[in-house]
Amino acid sequence: MPKYFGQYGGQYVGEVLRPALDELAAGFAKYSRDKKFLAEYADLLTNYAGRPTPLLYAANLTRELQGAKTYIKLEGLANTGAHKINNALGQVLLAKKIGKKQVIAETGAGQHGVATAAACARLGLRCEIFMGAIDAARQQPNVFLMKQYGAKIHIVEDGTRILKDAVNACLKNWTARAADTHYLIGSALGPYPYPDMVRFFQSSIGREIKKQLWQKEKKLPDVLIACCGGGSNSIGMFAPFLRNKKVRLIAVEAGGRGRKAGQHAARICSRSPLGIVEGYKSRFIQTDDGQVLPTHSVSAGLDYAGIGPELAALAEARRIEFLTASDKEVLQAYQYLARTEGLLFALESAHAAAAALKIIPRLGQDQIAVINMSGRGDKDIFITAAELSKKEWGEFLKQEVERLCG
Ligand SMILES: *Cc1c(COP(=O)(O)O)cnc(C)c1O
């Protein structure tokens, strides 16, 4: 397998980590073709994660928008509430096969940490999660959930105490104990072989869509729409269609509050420069001299300065079209989907929905669009309720604080 996607990707790590990455690449090459491994993984996806997830015909939205016939892939119905579990299960199972005793991971918003902790609990490996102190303080619900799954949480007090500091701490920790420890990366990024591995474990999303749509419509979709942070749900949805050149692939980045640096997380749409960060070469929101800049999005899962190397390459090749959705459009789409289809989108996934609401009316009624609902929105209640129902939510929180803290 090549280590690059065009000029993107690679394996930019210190010598000490090479052997661990080589071992992982060899293990992945072997087990991704191993019938027994694949059967065990498929069983976990079916009976633990709840796959295949449904492909819902969005009848009300289709009627209202009068454009393409629209389907929604309900990844939010997967166990733990999002697509992240597909990758977590695959990597934990692989780690076990190659003889690892424990799994470490870093998490920003906590979604990846929760999926990793759950997968480790299910498969019986020890789990340690690194989290910046600031992130841990503001994501207390996910810290609580990870602990319920038996994970040990390392609070990182270095640097700015956010995700990138947790990544550094996690890498440092891995360097010291890679012989018996697997580092589980949660998106389609990082040094080779992670982007390949994550794509492999996420592509059941696209494969199921192909099959489900064939059963319902006897044809391929015309347009696929997914939100894009690191790129795992989008590449998982798109990969099985890359060779079907007539299928339009649309990835939606976080437009945030505006186009100024610090206000968004639109790597491709803001024409971010090339860089090498966290072990791989891609486009990063950074200064000319390579300082990674802060980002913003209403959705924690898209609030990241980098993008998976394969997605950057497919953007450059114009195979994937990139769009943005602003925080405001995202909250509107979230409310629209809740009322129109009874679906509570995760704020990440609501980026795909927001773009879809603009695209679908411009398509013909003989066309088919699929939106990936990468996760469900229950987890976002502290953000959505504060934005959309500030007074009542504030009163509720005050009452809870009084009840708990007197
Ligand atoms: C983490 C997350 C994302 C963003 O990550 P990708 O790797 O780009 O998929 C999107 N949706 C949900 C629900 C997430 O939890």
UniProtKB/TrEMBL annotation:
Keyword Heme listed: no
Keywords, sorted A to Z: Amino-acid biosynthesis, Aromatic amino acid biosynthesis, Lyase, Pyridoxal phosphate, Tryptophan biosynthesis
Amino-acid biosynthesis keyword on record: yes
Pfam families for the chain: PALP
Cofactors (names): pyridoxal 5'-phosphate
PANTHER family hit by this protein: TRYPTOPHAN SYNTHASE, TRYPTOPHAN SYNTHASE-RELATED
UniProt-recorded name of the protein: Tryptophan synthase beta chain
Organism whose genome encodes this protein: Candidatus Termititenax persephonae
